[in-house]
């Protein structure tokens, strides 16, 4: 074998080895999508609070309770914003670690530390010297953080972080259902009750006239000479009918607004789970040395933005 041939074979072997090993992907698309999601979470909360305040201008049945519910909603949404900002910090940290392409213990520790910080930002207090009571989700996430910390490779660390990321996302979705949705329901019922109160006299009058009209029609069937009063009763009922139609339209609008707000909260849950799914793709991309795909997360963010516009237009 000639020296030149041997050299070409050696070079080819090196190329094959490098191709097999591959290089770590750019994790910035995941981090960028997370940043876009976080901004949308903040915008969603503002749109919902503004919508609730505008709806409150129709004088809810219990004004004080309505204002308290808006305050509770703002506080609950601020926790969602903090969690999303925690996801931004986590994703940026992972992107930096991947970009550094290191496989040291310090690299793995950074992943573990970032995961623990994400849990904290999401309202999950992990076990520690000053923590006496730890929730089940905190125990699970804490155990995963420990597993990540003893990983030997970056790809293993990010893969082991996935169960914790999914648990955190599910926790946030559960918190939304328990905190945000009941508050929206209370505000809707308060507004609906306030609308009904404004038309209560009209409703009572219409009910009384309808009862008299029913009796008058029965009397007219027996004695046609009594039919003269029917026309006047019909006129009275028609006069109040316009007011009741206005009431029903306002109630329909209140119901549609409530539905739109619920859709936005549900969309937040969808994007939260999509973020966890995007993290799963990130872990797979690091393992397989392929391009990161955050398209599904970006698509759900687009849906979230459309609903933000819908709520702002209420």
Write the layout of secondary structure elements.
Blueprint: H1 3-21, H2 28-55, H3 63-100, H4 105-121, H5 136-149, H6 154-198, H7 200-222, H8 228-288, H9 295-312
Helix pairs in contact: 2-3, 2-8, 2-9, 3-4, 3-6, 4-5, 4-6, 5-6, 6-8, 7-8, 8-9
Describe the fold and architecture.
The chain is mainly α and 314 residues long. It has helices spanning 3-21, 28-55, 63-100, 105-121, 136-149, 154-198, 200-222, 228-288, 295-312. The model is unreliable at 5-20 (pLDDT under 50).
Summarize the entry for a quick read:
84% of the residues lie in helices and 0% in strands.
Secondary structure tally: strands: 0
Q: Determine Rg (CA atoms, Å).
A: 31 Å
The number of helices is: 9
- Chain-averaged pLDDT: 86
Q: Any descriptors?
A:
single chain; 314 residues; mainly alpha; 0% strand
